[in-house]
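Note to self: the last two entries modelled the partners one at a time, which told us nothing about the interface. This time every component goes in together.
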Amino acid sequence: MKKNMKQLIKECTRSSFDLKMKLTLLLLLVFFFKTNAITISLNTNIIPLDVDKLMLQEKIVTGIVTDEFGIPLPGATVLIKGTTNGTSTDFDGKFGVSVKEGDTLVFSYVGYITQEVIVGGSSTINVSLIIDNTTLDEVVVVGYGSQRKKDIAGAISTVKTEELVLSSSSSIGDVLRGKVSGLQITQNSAQPGGGLDFQIRGAGSINASNQPLIVVDGFPITDFQQPGTGNRYSGGTQSILNSFNPNDIESISILKDASATSIYGARAANGVILLTTKKGVSGKVQVSYSSSYSIQSYNDSFDVIRSLPEWMQLRNDAAYENWLFQNRVTPYSSGNTSSRTLEEAMADPVGGVAFSRFYSDDQINNAGLGTNWLDLVTRDGSTQQHNLSLTGGTESTKYYLSGNLYEQDGVLKNSTFDRAALRFNLDQKVSDYVSVGMNMTMSRINNDNSQLGGDRYENSGIIRSALQYGPQIQAIDEFGYYPINPDNSQEPNPYSLLTITDKGIIDRTLTNFYTEIKPLPGLVARFQAGIDQGYTSRNTYLPRTTLYGETVNGKATIANQKKNDNLFDFTLNYSKIISDDHNFNFLVGYSRQKYRSESASSGNEDFITDSFLWNNINAGAGPRTLASTKYEQNIVSYFARLNYTFKDRYIFSGTIRRDGSSVFAENNRFAVFPSVALGWDMAGEPFIKNLSDNINQLKFRVGYGETGNADIGSNAFAAYYAQPAYLNPDESILVGVFPSRLANPDLKWETTEEINIGLDFELFKGRLSGSVEVYNKEISDLLQVKPINSYNEINTVWANIGTTQSKGVEVTLNTINVDTKDFRWKSTLTFSKFKDNWKERAPDWKPSIFEKVDDPIRARYTYLSDGVMQIGEVVPAQPDLFPGQIKVKDLNGFSRDEFGNPVVDDNGRFIATGAPDGIIDEADIVMTGSTDPDFIAGFSNSISYKNFELNFHFNGMFGRQIEDATDVALGVSADGVRQNGRNAIRSIYNRWTPDNPTNTRPASHYGYTQYSAGDFFLQDAWFIRLQNLSLSYNLPTKALGKVFNSMAIRFDAQNLFLITPFKGVDPETTGYDSRLQDTDQNPSNLVGAYPNVKTYTLGIDLKF
Amino acid sequence: MKNVNFYLMGLFVLLTVACNPDLESINYDEINPAIFPASEADVEALVVAAYYPLRGSWWNGIHTTSERGIMFVNDATTEILQGNFGVQQLATLTSYVPSSEGVTRFYDDFYNRISSNTLSIDRLENSSVNENIKKVGVAELKCARAFLSYELFDMYGPIVVAPLEVLQNPLVETPLARLSHDEMVNFIEQDLLDAAEDLPAPADAAYGRFSQGLARMLLIRLYLHEKRWADVEAQANAIMAMNYYELVDDYVDMFSTKSQVDNKEIMFAIPADYAATSENQWQQMVLPSNYPGGGGWATIQSSWMFYDSFEPDDVRKTNLIAEFTGTDGVTYNRSNPANIMQMGPLPLKIENDPNRTTLTTIDIILYRYADVILSKAEAIANKNNTPNQEAINLVNEIRERAGLDPILLADYSDIDVFNEMILKERSHEYWGENGQYRSDLIRHGKFVEHALELNGTSSQAAPYKELYPFSLGKIAEGKGAFLQNPGYN
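The predicted structure of the combined assembly is written out below.
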């Protein structure tokens, strides 16, 4: 039977290779194209475009364009000044162009200073271009268009992918961490393809969605994850960007302040990330191939007890401690209970039970090694990827074609991530007035999910299970059964969890078509239509080899989800330059989007064989489960923008957008979001120019804007739903109808108003540049599910519930530290800090006594712990506390009336006495600050020496505290060891006992009290991580021969080291559970997070 | 070229105007409240929803046999059940406080279902459905409302019952006070009297659904709570006059995996299935890991005090497991209790389902005719403060079925002695069923006494703990109008 199953699995995976087949075809195509395209492009280089000119005295000038070190620059543009005629260089930097004598040739290349050469008598012109350290002429993608960086007045950061080390990352999000000030990316799971949380300028919204809008080539995309299943285990989280091959991305713009984002109106409240993919360039076809292989060596970061004799001794000790405690043997007395002597207790033990040890000395001495569960479920991970792209085109047709294969085996057995992605970008000029084009990307992700998830006990994921399963249990017995811990019969054998099959698929096809019409000089009309289609499924099977599979004779689930998002955009853009000084750009647009989503799932159990998996779901005897959903939403928008620059140094930009969303009631559907920004580049002023020529830019910016948020998951209308509710006498199902949502006809957009003041500077010819931003953001009419009076049938409703305020500072500093012919060293430092606070609450806000109106949004409310109660100590406010338990501070109390009922003020809020009252109650909880980090920072370096290049990047979060959930669950109390024969981590040996009266760790019985542990377990968790380090070597041209144009070999390392005071496994990935809102965080759900390990990558880049 | 420009502008204007009307959100899997309820099937769906919070479900059914059900917690405050961790320990040691979510959550999670019923009654009455169908539907909804109200009243004292006008304006904040004692009793009583009128007779009601019999049984519970002995007797007589209910011969068999659909002793049981539409997980709660034939979580034990209170031949302690040989070959009993039986025997009550170790399809029996008999006995003895032969005869009916010898009036002619006896009899008869023994002890002023006898100085029992506390959230939400039970401030 087992063989059958394996066979089936194999076949399953085989069918998923479909896309790979396509990719192989693509490879063949590429080579076919390449050979053909070369001929095409050579022709265009030589044949002049304008026939009239040919009639005149023309001659052909040829030459070679190189960089300052003599290395040829392929794809450099050569234009005849004042015309659009010209060509670009081939792979050897060579060009040929037909000119008249006296023409001026303009040579330009991205990142180099443009040079002009007047054509003289010679028919050969060789040019060497010099690197441009200034970035002022850089063009930046902004909403619905692009702008010169120097003309921008909003807070926009850009990243070029050529500056990133893509290495073994599965998505572009991974490598952006710490690269951009104001953008905080937190990896919430270290699993392959694991989820990332993006936050631009903090998180001022208090509902679940603080994620920025992500726009890929003009298409705002929505998150699409594997569906949940009914089979107990979570597949973990996945990054929204996994479906997009990071190698296809040309640049990333991060729009941060409202003046930059308000062109995206309703969905821009949390910032916008614009991803632009690579386009074809005319000229000789360029083929590049890169490949890398990474290993992730599993380092055993969980310090569990591995020696069986040691564990047996611990269990004996814990049992004795517990018996003494339960029998209240001295020193275990509390304010309410006195203790007894050992003799008294032995004479009359509680429940008549005398103490007995679990294991004799003999058993302990003869114990074997015990099972090392972690070793059984982990392995060394690996990643390999292949990436092939083809760029080329003629004057009229330009294309970019790429394929990517990415395969990662995670350090947990069973966890793999496998992606195949295709991209095709095409730009076609139909006539001088009309051009059309498309971007298409298609990807399939296959996931083998390991059993993750924060649940406890019988639903523990594989890591938690492996941590807590006792070493006394065999992994597998001689009959092939997976033994269960007899003291804990509901928790499955961790090794058996590897027999679970759990496969997920995410297919996504994003296609954009556009037509551009240029009816008049300066006027561009653009139509864009796009479809984002997704299909995702997750199928699971729990076989009989697992505890739960056995109780139900196998359980299969199938779940899938489809989405179909449509976009239609229409924009009119008019630009005009009047008398060289006045530069106008005017844009109006219309956009509509439709979101449709459908899901279905089914499940069955009680199968005659495990070999079907989920492929014959009808063959189970049940109970069966079925479910399906469908919804549709619409957004309509109108927008306009005016950019005006005067004398290149006075900048005005204004936008307005009107959005309508179907989720609100009729009269609140539409909202208008305006913005305005002003900029002044002082460097352009004559008085500065006279002062010093070392100031290239000194641009002050101030912007104000409004953006919105309408993300309420569903809509604001009342609804009923139907579901199985009760049973007939024969146990057939009765379906009931329940109200599920209250209408809120007054519900409206959440509005963000933001003021941003910024300074961009560039000094010493680009040696030092950067920007500083200061902002103040107020979010009003906050959308949140508000609790209303709890007696209501539905006692929560989406409502506008108040105002929050965020303030922050962001600094980006770029330096060129060394710039010589052979040695260059550039650095970038980013720093961001924000503070999110409440400003105003709903009138019917029902605060607890410790909550204040202006608390931080993610406030930490806690009792203050006061160490561990020691022997003989008296704790007046906690009369039922025993030695070894955690004390909390009595700080405050409720004001009470003569009957002892707490009194309230006019607003119905409780009044604190402000002084200790001898009782520990809610009044003693205090707000200790925010759970947000104080600041985050990144530090990137790029050093090149001759043909070597070294990149390394640090990122860090500072001023944060978290609990080490794994330690709290498995390293503090030995009760689980005693009671359930669980394992523990070695910090258990530091626990309080009468013989070890420590003040830093409580006793095993610390939880046997009505009092909270307060902030006892919080630890400092700032960290600095060497995110990646990459060393590459470009082979000298001579060594390459004819076949390759360039070749580089790379060695990368990720997550090489971490500096942190945090004692747990990883202060980032074990920090919080992204599935929950911050306020719902339950540390016990974070035990055994997916380990974040070091990755080493060897890679090669080839260009043909 | 100008033409093109013109067309473009025209197109833009067209788009701007034309594209708004279908700005709509549609959830295809929901029902629009405007068109519901309209048919007989809609009425049934609305009424069935009222059973939902009453069923067995760890998540949201108040009669779940887990630690989140009222039987578990209420019986754990008495000698019937004991626990050494979690909410069961709080109950056992009577150490619950307002922050003990395990005991406050029954109110927090379920009291708004009373409002659901109020609104459903209104929806039904305002619908255009046939009047007869309406009448029965309203009766079922009222019975559901009273059922839940009584159970919460019994645990917490008078509670908040929101009037319809308030419920129809949910977005207006209206802090409400708890009802007064009399208002509370009248509210429950009136619903039950109405329901007893319009519900089907027991013979006509489907198994698992409310009947006139249940409505009157709940009235008996309410009147017992209020010590309105004459009203108890009247309702018991009314039920007996239905000539439908009877004691079955085999007590133990009632709790087996056999179908009880035709059992005429059962007045109300909640059907349970393996698919967890409504679930019974008692065996999983009780059995230890090493129990032969499938283990559980061993969350709860009985007490040796309770076990010892049974007479040796009493069939009703059959499933109070005092000795078993585990899968490890070790025999566990009172003298070798290990972790499993330190406090008492295993209160299995139901048959260990051979088909499943997790959920069982054994239905959750909440009310049986035996209760009518014992309640009537108690009522007629207490009405005159003197036990009589009729009362003794009624008790003997129950004892006989349990395989015990009859008792004599001569031994129980003193009302206090009689009440001691009736309390013991009730605990033996109904342990592990609906958790009402706590209420029985409180009625006779024995709650604190029993707790102290059982757990000595560890017990924090006090008269004010006869009612559970409300959570702090409810106090905060009440904005001064909602008062905590005395003693918990």
